[in-house]
Amino acid sequence: MIVFDLSCENNHVFEGWFADRASYEEQVAKGLINCPFCGSQKIRKILSPVAIKKSRDSQHQASTPEAKMLNVLYQISRYVEKNFEDVGARFAEEALKIHYGIEEPRAIRGVATEEEEKILKEEGVEFLKVPVIRKSEH
User: Fold this and answer.
1) pLDDT by residue (tens digit) across 101-127?
2) Residue finishing a domain among 25, 54, 83
3) Highest taxon of the source (predicted)?
4) 31 and 62 in one domain?
5) CA distance 117 to 111
6) Mean local confidence (pLDDT), 57-85
7) Are residues 128 and 61 part of one domain?
8) Residue 97 belongs to what domain range?
9) Do residues 26 and 89 both lie within one domain?
10) For the chain, what percent of residues have pLDDT higher than 70?
11) Domain count of the chain?
12) Are residues 47 and 9 located together in one domain of the fold?
């Protein structure tokens, strides 16, 4: 596990946790990292001391606050994966149809662009961004 200090185009600073540097690069390239303050997808690494978690000692790992947090996020991620319909890139479209009664209410999951998220918020559609945590990351 590696932690980077990140910044968006609006100079908001936040941490990002990744399996490795390649995971970070891939997620940035795909626009999967958003600023938690403003939602911007224009993210860059900033100079900082980098924390690398190398120990695989499961007892020690399970007792750290970070490991507990990752475990909770993993459980939430698995619940959403199993119980919500994956509509992929059609998330905003499907959420609006449900919101306006065009389609029956149901639990959906997917991805939306920053602009689509803005539209959903303006239309009063409630949604929650949940990170996808892989088993190897927790």
Assistant:
1) 999 999 999 999 999 999 999 999 999
2) 54
3) Bacteria
4) no
5) 9
6) 77
7) yes
8) 56-138
9) no
10) 84
11) 2
12) yes
Residue 16, pLDDT > 70, answer yes
Long-range CB contacts (within 8 A, 24+) of 131-136: 131/73, 131/77, 132/77, 132/81, 133/70, 133/73, 133/74, 133/77, 134/19, 135/74, 136/19
Render the burial of 52-83: b for 16+ CB within 10 Å, e for the rest: eeeeeeeeebeeeeebeebeebbeebeebeee
Question: Are both 15 and 83 inside the same structural domain?
Answer: no
Residue/partner pairs of 78-85 with CB below 8 Å, 24 or more apart:
80/109, 80/130, 81/109, 81/132, 83/107, 84/108, 84/109, 85/109
5: left (phi over 0), alpha (psi -120 to 50) or beta: beta
Distance CA 70, CA 74 (A): 6
- Joined tokens for residue 117: 């998220």
